[in-house]
């Protein structure tokens, strides 16, 4: 893990197209601003982990479990 020290309004650049800026520091909390291309997903870690868990759960569904959710025209 790379550990950097930054002050308010200082930034780091990742992969030439993601800029992370320290926006504010209040006590133990740091606010970060992130500029990234729209095709680069940016999530808080806990949100990312929830998305991964949900994707894993969805990948294990049997197609017959989804059939009742489809409308009459969508059923095969």
Q: Summarize the biggest pleated sheet.
A: 3 strands, antiparallel
Global geometry: elongated
Rg, alpha carbons: 20 Å
Spans of at least 5 consecutive residues whose pLDDT stays below 50 are none
Distance from first to last alpha carbon: 50 Å
**Helix residue percentage:** 25-40%
**Percent in strands:** 25-35%
How many H/I helices? 2
Mean pLDDT: 89
What letter string, H or E per element, gives the SSE order? EEEHH
Largest beta sheet: strand ordering: 1-2-3
Number of domains: 1
Q: What is the chains' assembly state?
A: single chain
Structural class: alpha+beta
Counted beta strands: 3
Write up what this structure looks like.
The chain is α+β, with helices and mostly antiparallel strands and 76 residues long. It contains 2 helices and 3 strands, in the order βββαα. Strands 1-2-3 form a 3-stranded antiparallel β-sheet, with no helix packed on it. Strand 2 (18-26) and strand 3 (29-35) form a beta hairpin. The longest helix is centred in the C-terminal third of the chain and has 15 residues, at 45-59. The radius of gyration is 20 Å and the shape is elongated. The mean pLDDT is 89.
């Amino acid at each position: 893990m790379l550990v950097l020290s930054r002050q308010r309004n200082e930034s780091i650049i990742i992969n030439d197209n993601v800029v992370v800026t320290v926006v504010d520091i209040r006590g133990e909390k740091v606010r970060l601003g992130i500029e990234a291309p729209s095709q680069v997903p940016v999530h808080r870690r806990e949100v990312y982990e929830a998305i991964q868990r949900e994707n894993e759960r969805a990948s294990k569904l049997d197609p017959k479990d989804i059939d009742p959710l489809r409308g009459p025209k969508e059923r095969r």
